[in-house]
Design a protein that fits this description.
Layout: H1 29-34, E1 40-45, E2 50-57, H2 69-79, E3 85-93, H3 97-110, E4 113-121
Parallel strand pairs: 2-4, 3-4
Antiparallel strand pairs: 1-2
The protein binds zinc ion (ZN).
């Protein structure tokens, strides 16, 4: 398979149990180690509601982040059906006044606590 980040070809190790299953990966081991996932959870109090922010990385990477679809869908499955929350996906979040105001507005619009899944929380300084 071809890694969508470094464009090198790589092979998947298969065991007897999954010998005939087709596994699809879009990222090689090397890249997986180079761009480590640091799942972080942060709770922010908004005006009337709360925002739980789940970020995947420590910093912004200029790579094809779609390769992390498995991690993304795991988070998605965990939170998707919780009626008391509104789940939103954003690429990056800065947590400055502007972003916090936007989250506040979104929570008031849906009248729910938010779960915000982002690739990373970044500093805009
Ligand atoms: Zn790679």
């Amino acid at each position: 398979m071809k890694c969508l980040i470094c464009n090198n070809y790589f092979y998947l190790k298969k065991s007897l149990l999954d010998l005939f299953k087709t596994k699809k990966e879009y990222i090689c081991d090397k890249c997986y180690k180079k761009y480590p996932i640091h799942l972080k959870y942060e709770l922010i109090e908004l005006d009337l509601y709360q925002a739980s922010i789940i970020s995947l990385f420590d910093k912004k990477y200029n790579i094809n982040l779609n390769v992390f679809y498995k991690e993304y869908s795991k988070i998605f499955k965990n939170y998707f059906n919780k009626e008391e929350y509104q789940v939103i996906f954003l690429d990056y979040l800065c947590l400055d006044d502007r972003d916090l105001e936007a989250l506040d507005g979104i929570s008031k619009l849906f009248e729910k606590n938010l779960i915000v899944v982002v690739y990373a929380i970044i500093n805009n300084q």
